[in-house]
Amino acid sequence: MSFNKLKKLLIGAPLNPFNPQILRHVSLVAFMAWIGLGADGLSSSCYGPEEAYIALGQYSHLALYIAVGIALTVFVISLGYNQVVELFPSGGGGYKVASQLLGSHVGLVSGAALLIDYVLTITVSTASGMDAIFSFLPKSLVTYKLFSEGAMIVFLIFLNFRGMKESIKILLPIFLGFMFIHVSLIIYGIMAHHRGLIQIIPDTVHQTQALAATIGWLPLIAFTIHAYTLGSGTYTGLEAVSNNVNRLSEPRVSTGKWTMFYMAVSLSFMAAGFIILYLLWNAHPAPGQTLNAVVFHSILGNSPLGNSALLITLLFEAGLLFVAANTGFLAGPSVLANMAIDGWVPNRFRHLSTRLVIQNGLILFGISALLLLLWSQGRVSLLVILYSINVFITFSLSLLGLCVYWAKHRKKASPNWIFRFIFSLFAFLITISILCITLISKFRSGGWFTIIMTCAVIAVCLLIKRHYNRVYKKLIKLDAQLRQPIIEKPMSSIIPDPTQPTAVILVGKHSGIGMHTLLCAMRMFPKYFKNFVFVSVGVVDVQSFSGHETLEKMQHEVNNSLQYFVDYCQQYGIAAESYAAFGTDLVGHVNQLAEKIGDKYTNCIFFASKLIFENDNWITRLLHNETPITLQRQLHLQGKELVIIPMKI
To answer: Nearest CA to 532 among 602, 604, 634?
Structure first.
């Protein structure tokens, strides 16, 4: 079996980005988006409320306030991100909000925090899921747990190579099974203790007053808020929809808002429901068991049927954690691609594969998660501490950006702008408070490492941006210097003679590079070439694949660029024509055009320019695609000649 056939079998046949129906094929309706992007939040409800409840210790009656606070906070953050979806329907979420409303460098902080957060989403969810599975297996197999976690991450990488919707469809039964079982258990567990539910409010008020009389109201409030913030992991995943609005079905804003609604209702129900179950069934931590396992065991009983039902319930919890890990692969590469568009990370992370997924981003997130898994040895207690900090950096910056937006646009906005401003400010105060308390309380426990990782990512991004800015300025200057005027367009095109020597010039985005290649070819072979053929490939990346209009704009720009070179040659009486192709695989399309051109022009030589840097190293080669070198190797295999012209930057 050839490599191409094996690749097609594993990840599927290539997709045509110009197919009018392709956006509908790869986009997600609200229900599918809820499953794919909401699993992270729902999985965190399995351990976030538990953290808050355990922190209360003997004062468990305060958990009722925690349940109400968590449910309200979920809706507050969700409604805040509804505004993000509305204002930024092209996706990008917290990164774009911070970049466009607070400044590019603030956006970098938000983007770096999101990148670390999604890597941690993959790592902690996979480790937690495997912990749950291995808790049912013989202890002799525990040595294979870390290997199994790594294998699961690799499996999720290949699963997402097939596409976002395809990966969600495969994991759909796990998500629906989790929802059905846990909703049923929460409702049954509460109804079975309905008398206790009626009494829980007056008991809580009475015990709170008694405790306040003993220690004072201020220490009581501080203690409750501290426990509440320890459950901050519950809110992770709420920002995933805003990062992927561009992958939702039309109308995107409406689909995004419905998705956020599904996520808010399901997450608040689960999180508050678990805490109420802990209270009603008087759950206490048990060695080697989660509080969910303890309370579900109490609900289901000790019968063989009850034990079997408990096993199925906990297996679905473990399965949902793997679906949550997949959320990191769905949302993380989108953030990376948006940062690549702005020049913070290498350009290759904005490219799409033949299946129209951000393949390079998937690989980077997978490798990063594997390295973090090895470093932590899969210790969930350590990973959870790292996990719950960065997301609140993005929450806070996004909501602060909304405050700035409504303040600046109050004259143009609708009369209810003041309500939106106050709401955004209120949500910002909640998230920034949780961030500060979480950072202080967990700094020595490992929170410092999250800050170091985020700062390291920011530092690397700043260096990359500085390099791209230098190169971009020089290329813009070169475009202006080498831009040759079209004095007079010829009345009729000069038809090339296929039997004459022909120069095939590869043209890219910058006309200066193409003109440099053309002039060098003329200088190297004076009066030799009678025909000039210009070739350009419009690469469909994350930016151009955001809609039909952007694809048409990209095609128009490529065709105009080629026409400029043809007109330039023909105004001097030189025969010229052009060939264009569009798709995700630049090298593959150039190879196809080369075969077509080679069949027509039997005596042709290909020319391409390559940027040369004074301090050339593996870093510059990573930041700039080595396309000319790859093309030269491919064309040599076809028996064609490609001359690479150095272009010093």
So the answer is: 604
The pLDDT assigned to 99 comes to 92
CB contact at 8 A, 578 and 496: no
Q: Supply φ then ψ for residue 573, to 5 degrees.
A: 80, 20
Is 332 in contact with 104 (CB distance < 8 Å)?
Answer: no
| H or E element that contains 606 | strand 604-612
Which residues share a beta bridge with 502?
A: 531, 604
Chain centroid to Cα 323, Å, comes to 15
CA distance 410 to 121: 37
Strands (E) located in 490-547: 502-506, 531-539
pLDDT digits (tens, 9 = 90+) for 415-460: 778 888 899 999 999 889 888 888 888 888 778 888 999 999 999 9
Q: What is the DSSP string of 149-166?
A: HHHHHHHHHHHHHT-HHH
Dihedrals phi, psi of 576, to nearest 5 degrees: -155, 150
Which of 96, 405, 379 minimizes the C-alpha distance to 245?
96
Mean pLDDT, residues 475-494 taken together: 82
Looking at the DSSP bridge assignments, the partners of residue 506 are 535
Task: Name the residue ranges covered by the structural domains of the chain.
Answer: 28-466, 502-648
Q: Report how far apart, in Å, the C-alpha atoms of 360 and of each of 220, 334, 350, 351 are.
A: 50, 11, 8, 7
Kindly report, residue by residue over 121-169, the tens digit of the pLDDT: 899 889 888 887 887 778 888 889 899 999 999 999 999 988 888 888 8
Strand partners, 611: 647
Q: Which residues contact 272 (CB under 8 A, 6 or more apart)?
A: 49, 67, 68, 70, 71
In Å, the largest CA–CA distance within the chain is 100
pLDDT in tens, 598-628: 999 999 999 999 988 888 777 888 888 778 8
What is the per-residue DSSP string for 226-251? HHHHHTGGGGTTTTHHHHTGGGBPSS
Using one digit for the tens of pLDDT, what is the confidence trace for 10-38? 777 788 788 777 777 788 889 999 988 88
Give me the helix-helix angle, 104-134 and 93-102, nearest 10°: 160
CATH 3.40.50.620 is held by the domain 502-648: yes
Q: What is the reported pLDDT for 641?
A: 92
Contacts of 484 (CB under 8 A, 6+ apart): 515, 568
* Bridge partners of residue 459, in order along the sequence: none
Q: Are strands 604-612 and 575-583 parallel, antiparallel or unpaired?
A: unpaired
- Domain 502-648 in the same topology as domain 28-466: no
pLDDT at 196 over 80: no
Question: What is the pLDDT, as a whole number, of residue 156?
Answer: 93
d(CA 43, CA 267): 9
Residue 462 has pLDDT above 90, yes or no: yes
CA dihedral (588, 592, 598, 601) positive or negative: negative
DSSP type of residue 286: B
Please, are residues 535 and 579 in contact by the beta-carbon 8 Å criterion? yes
Check whether 226 has a pLDDT greater than 90: no
The CATH number corresponding to 28-466 among 3.60.110.10, 3.30.450.20, 1.20.1740.10, 3.40.50.2000 equals 1.20.1740.10
- C-beta of residue 328 within 8 angstroms of C-beta of residue 243: no
- pLDDT of 2 higher than 70: no
Which phi and psi (to 5°) does residue 206 adopt?
A: -65, -45
Residue type (1 letter), 223: F
CB neighbours of residue 496 within 10 Å: 19
Give CA separation, 26 vs 17, 197, 339, 433, in Å: 10, 45, 22, 39
d(CA 640, CA 605): 7
CB 37 within 8 A of CB 244: yes
